[in-house]
Amino acid sequence: MRLGKFVRLVLAVGVSIPIALLAGAQAASSVLTKTDPALAATVFPANGTALANVAFAEYISSIVDPSAPPPPNAEAIRLAREALRKEPLSPKAYVVLAQAEKDPARRRVLIEGASRLNRRDLALQGLVLQEHLADQDYPATIDTLDQILRVHPKHSQEFFPLLATALTNESTIPIFSNLLDGSSPWHERFLDYAVASPEVVPNLARLRPGLAIGGEDFDRRLIAALFKRGDIDSAAAIYAKVAGNKVGLGTSELVDWRSKYPPFDWQLADRAEFRAQLSRDGKELEIYVKPGQGGIIASRVFAAPKGPLNFEIQHSLAPAAQIEDVRFQLGCIGHTDVLVDQRLKSGVNRVSSGVLPGDCRYLVMGFDARAWSGKAPLSGSILSIKAQSLAD
Questions:
Q1: Distance from CA of residue 267 to its chain's centroid?
Q2: For the whole model, what pTM was predicted?
């Protein structure tokens, strides 16, 4: 990710959001200070907070393009200075005066001082973001966003894109690893947001081993997102860590029916008219296909062995005349040719993969099931699959 893109995005959103969303005052000294600051200042001229809110309202009323706000006008500046004389802790007054300051050094001192006095005001923290970005200071920028979201969680959807953009830079991974510890509710919500952003997924995979948070749903989505990107090795590494299972099959084993983390566990169709599900005891895979329905009803990816594979499949599918409408398939990911596409028959089914392509690293096996219109529903169970590797 280019730093300039991140800077432009945060400068545009980090300032425009506070200005656009905080037209009203907060931390008011009275009801009128919040709902009608001008009236509050008139009724009680010593109300510095109300004056600061009037100054801020005067300033934002002049803004046409929030991404490029103009300097405050003279009246807004006068009101802000008057407000600080009466209430030195008014954050809105500091926002106005900081926006009016042309000297970068003096502006920085003003913002830093005001921020130490008040870390809750969203508009003020937006200016703090600008200063950290001018320094190209990722840690301080992300820390400021953390402070904002802790105080203003309702603005998560506005600021999450900024954090996601930051996470596309690999240098920020240690920062996020230390930050995302579950101490604030927004941490988990951000992971849910980020895993849906394709450009962030690669660095999420690098971040995941050091994360103290991230539950089963997050891991499932991350594995699926990495696989969809074609980064199968990273998806397999995350799977092996969070599931505690190997990605490959043993030299001879009964294939299990786990379905927690597809595609390395089983991906099961789950429509009412076309579904696969585990039996109550978890030892069989039950399938149901309504007439007129068909397709891949169950599939699973695993690491390819060095040599051919033999499979032994047992089932209890019915009706008998329609068993052949269920096909066992095996393919090599990245290859268009199917290695195996065999219709099932009654009794034990034995299938061989044949010699695997030399560059085949991952295989996908599955069942294609179909019930033709006008015929009976297809149902029953795949009782077991035994896989045996013939590698030397």
A1: 21
A2: 0.77
